[in-house]
Design brief:
The complex is a heterodimer of chains A (325) and B (488). Chain A has helices at 2-28, 57-73, 87-99, 113-126, 139-142, 152-167, 183-196, 213-226, 241-251, 268-273, 285-300, 321-324; strands at residues 46-51, 76-81, 104-108, 130-133, 146-149, 171-178, 202-209, 232-235, 258-262, 279-282, 312-313, 317-320. Chain A is α/β, with parallel strands linked by helices and 325 residues long. Chain A folds into two domains: 46-150 and 285-315, Rossmann fold, CATH 3.40.50.2300; 152-282, 3-Layer(aba) Sandwich (Rossmann fold), CATH 3.40.50. Chain B is built from twelve helices and seven strands. In chain B, strands 2-4-5-7-6 form a five-stranded mixed sheet. Chain B has a two-stranded antiparallel sheet with strand order 1-3. In chain B, a hairpin with a 3-residue loop joins strand 4 (390-398) and strand 5. Classes of the chains: A alpha/beta (325), B alpha+beta (488). The A-B interface holds A 2, 5-6, 9-10, 12-13, 16-17, 19-20, 23-24, 26-28, 30-41, 46, 76, 78, 92, 95-97, 99-102 and B 29, 36, 39, 91-97, 99-105, 107-108, 110-112, 140-141, 144, 147-148, 159-160, 162-163, 166-167, 170, 173-174, 176-177, 180-181, 183-184, 187-188, 190-191, 194-195, 198.
């Protein structure tokens, strides 16, 4: 009896002490440490990349390339930006960056007065170098150090050439851009028009549309009503390509039309995959990010002063729907 | 040896130790957690402080621009100082995650101060427009600071997410630990208390059992208690008491036996004395008469009759005197001679008596009238009934420690049963003895005198004779001797 009680109690105690020890180990183990407080790294260059459309494929690639290069160069880089081309937000970010006295700003160019004001006066006042990326704003208007991105004029030309080779030298073409008159859109248009001007049989209709979905649809309808026998569409601003194509689809099949656009829109790649876009200009966003960071670092370290005003152009190539299949 | 008090102290100490350990652990952990919480709260508070200060500064700047009084300016200066202190506080909060945001934050603060200064400068130069513009810029920066603050707090939350969850998990684990610990301690205490209590009660129970046995009168069981405290001591004492009681009892029994023996001896003596008193009707008259008869017989020329009368008188005198005193063997032998003279006169040729005595041992002490009754017995049983008479041998043989006395006859002998009866003292003495002292009386007196049961032995063969052998020690038992003077 006595022995049994002892054995049972001892057994219970052993089990309980096992659980107690296990729990105590968990409770007192501090594998979670407060994040190490580091001395402010003054020597490190602080760069900011500000894009207009965060979380789009294009901007993500630019950001990724820039971050990679920044890591290589030992600079700290933050990617800021607005969502869905929200200009107020975008400009605010630039202003914050300037007031935060970052060492360099890499920004997607925006062809507006506020943007130019900020870059020209504010940034210059604080002595912060600005590099435009992807979309350019002329040097004279923005006091940017350089531009890194595609040659938009050449991109326009390539689109036009592709159009001609697909459609032939005669036909009706609708060109749609947004109504912001952005510098890069103008360049693209110039490129297209410079090619098509040699082909008198190609009739072009140019339209501008506000950003909203309804407007895009309305304009597209309007144009198709004007030109029922249209052969080709070119969405100069890639953002409107999706809405435009959906409107065309509503009316008839998409296949007979030759539709072209650029890759810097949110839907561009999926449209091309679906075969709705016949061709798309593919830019090199990662290279843009990389080169822009490395250039600004070179400038900051005084290795290349001044930078090439005309800009550093990255690769572009034509991506056809046929190739992707 | 551990005392019960020590054991209780030990139990209390163990319990106290457990409690203290748990208390210290809890306090330590609590302190640690509190510190962590304080750190975290401090971080948030410091980050927020800047926002508050910047907003306050904008408000004061606005006031000053509207009514530029020294008091307002003073306020503004205070705000600036406050914001500078807040800025240095914020410096210390940087870590790998929020390094950039924090630097931006700090630079924004600088920008705010600069813009404020610019606004003040324009104001002093009466350039109201520029001053207004700078003010609106400052306002914007202040808003940016608020936003940046939010961003910072957001980053902070993200960075510390795992940490906070860790704290929550840990506190949950701690609750569990509390329960386990409570259970463990409960059972440990149960175990310990059980062991402790049984270590006290078990020996007590054994002791109780032993006491029970003792009270029932069983003094032969040894008391064993396996313990190392006072109970064991108690048990030891108890056992000693038991042994002492045992010894006392056996001593009392011995004494009682001794008393018994003495009583018997007294009774026998009284019996002999009574018998002798009965026959003691004026012995002096008898002796005188016998003496007169002896002289008369001698004068009348009957010398033999005269000698016989002298023998009878001597024997009677001896008989009366020497009953309760020890005498020497020599005196005893003399009495036997006188007795035999008388008997020879009676039986003449029918009685043949042979004596063989070692003279060197006649000094040995022996109770009075012990040999004569035996010889008389032999005469009565072996000579008297036989028409041809009989032969009686009387021998005293010296030995190194014992003197052997043999009385032998060639009578009809007796049965084993009778011998046993005689030796055990059951046989009622028959009438006809000269001294009135029977065989059994002699046997008992000899045994009492020497304290030895084997003093007398009887060998008998039916039809051939009986031999009584007495082994008398040369030295008497001392204790009997010591007690002899107290005899009544």
């Amino acid at each position: 009896m006595r022995k049994t009680v002892f054995v049972v109690l001892g057994f219970v105690c052993a089990i309980l002490s096992y659980f107690t020890i296990v729990t105590a180990e968990k409770a007192f183990r501090s594998d979670w440490q407060l994040p190490q407080t580091s001395e402010p790294t003054v020597a490190k260059y602080r760069l900011v990349l500000i894009t207009q459309e965060l979380e789009t494929d294009f901007c993500n690639k630019v950001g990724a390339g820039a971050l990679e290069q920044a890591q290589n160069d030992g600079a700290s880089l933050e990617v800021w930006g607005s969502y869905g081309k929200n200009q107020t937000d975008f400009l605010k970010k630039i202003e914050i960056a300037i007031h935060s006295k970052v060492d360099g700003i890499i920004v997607q160019g925006l062809d507006t007065d506020e943007f130019k004001d900020l870059t020209k006066i504010k940034a210059a006042f604080y002595g912060i170098p600005i590099v435009t990326v992807a979309n350019d704003v002329p040097m004279t208007e923005s006091l940017r150090r350089t531009y890194v991105g595609s040659d938009q004029y050449r991109a326009g030309k390539m689109i036009a050439e592709q159009l001609l080779s697909d459609m032939g030298t005669a036909g009706k073409v609708i060109l749609i851009s947004d109504n912001h008159q952005a510098y890069y859109q103008k360049q693209r248009l110039n490129g297209i028009e410079d090619v098509l001007v040699d082909y008198p049989n190609v009739q072009t209709v140019y339209a501008e549309t506000p950003d909203t979905r309804e407007q895009v649809i309305a304009i597209t309808q309007d144009l198709m009503n004007q030109l029922p026998d249209v052969d080709a569409f070119v969405a100069v601003n890639a953002n409107i390509a999706g809405d435009m194509i959906r409107e065309i689809e509503r009316r008839s099949r998409v296949a007979p039309y030759h539709i072209y656009s650029f890759d810097d829109g949110p839907e561009s790649l999926s449209l091309l995959m679906d075969g709705k876009l016949d061709g798309m200009i593919e830019q090199s966003p990662e290279m843009m990010g990389k080169i822009s960071v490395s250039l600004i670092m070179e400038w900051l370290r005084g290795e290349t002063v001044p930078l090439d005003m005309n800009g550093y152009l990255t690769d572009i190539r034509m991506l056809k729907a046929k190739d992707t299949r | 040896m551990k005392s019960i008090q020590q054991k209780i102290w030990m139990l209390a100490t163990v319990v106290l130790f457990f409690m203290a350990a748990i208390w210290i652990g809890l306090t330590y952990y609590n302190q640690k957690t509190q510190n962590q919480y304080n750190d975290i709260l401090q971080r948030y508070l410091r980050m927020n402080e800047v926002t508050g200060a910047s907003q306050q500064m904008i408000a004061d700047l606005n006031n000053y621009l509207l009514s530029p009084s020294p008091a307002n300016l003073n306020k503004l200066e205070q705000d600036k100082e406050k914001i500078r202190i807040a800025k240095y506080d914020v410096y210390g909060l940087s870590n790998a995650e929020n390094d950039i945001a924090l630097t931006n934050y700090v630079n924004l603060i600088d920008s705010l101060v600069e813009t404020t200064d610019r606004s003040l400068m324009f104001q002093s130069e009466r350039e109201t427009e520029a001053s207004k513009k700078a003010f609106s810029e400052a306002t914007r920066i202040s808003i940016y600071i608020s936003e940046m603050n939010l961003t910072l707090l957001d980053t902070e939350l993200k960075t510390y997410d795992r940490f906070y969850r860790g704290i929550i998990e840990q506190s949950e684990e701690f609750n569990k630990l509390g329960i386990w610990l409570l259970l463990l301690i409960t059972f440990l205490l149960l175990l310990f208390t059980y062991w402790f209590s049984s270590s006290i009660t078990r020996p007590v129970k054994k002791l109780t059992q032993a006491a029970n046995q003792l009270s029932k009168g069983r003094f032969d069981l040894q008391i064993e208690v396996e313990s190392n405290d006072e109970i064991a001591f108690l048990a030891m004492m108890f056992d000693r008491m038991r042994i002492n009681i045992n010894n006392l009892i056996s001593e009392i029994q011995q004494k009682a036996q001794l008393e018994n023996e003495l009583q018997q001896n007294k009774l026998l003596l009284q019996e002999s004395q009574l018998l002798s008193l009965q026959s003691q009707i004026n012995p002096h008259f008898l002796f005188n008469t016998l003496d007169t008869l002896s002289k008369k017989a001698y004068l009348e020329g009957s010398e033999e009759t005269s000698d016989l009368l002298v023998s009878v008188a001597g024997m009677l005198r001896y008989n009366l005197k020497r009953l309760d005193k020890s005498v020497t063997l020599y005196e005893e032998v003399n009495v036997i001679r006188q007795y035999m003279d008388i008997q020879k006169a009676r039986f003449t040729e029918r009685l043949q008596f042979h004596m063989d005595i070692d003279e060197s041992c006649l000094h040995v002490q022996i109770p009075g009238l012990t040999l004569q009754p035996i010889v008389e017995n032999a005469v009565i049983h072996a000579v008297e009934p036989e028409a041809d008479g009989g032969v009686i041998w009387f021998r005293i043989i010296d030995g190194p420690e014992l003197v052997t006395i043999e009385i032998e006859d060639d009578g009809p002998g007796m049965t084993e049963h009778k011998i046993k009866q005689i030796l055990e003292g059951h046989l009622v003495p028959t009438e006809g003895h000269a001294t009135g002292i029977g065989f059994s009386n002699v046997v008992k007196r000899l045994r009492l005198f020497y304290g030895n049961e084997d003093v007398m032995n009887i060998e008998s063969v039916m039809g051939q004779g009986t031999k009584v052998v007495m082994q008398i020690p040369k030295t008497r038992r001392t204790d009997y001797d010591n007690k002899a003077p107290y005899r009544g």
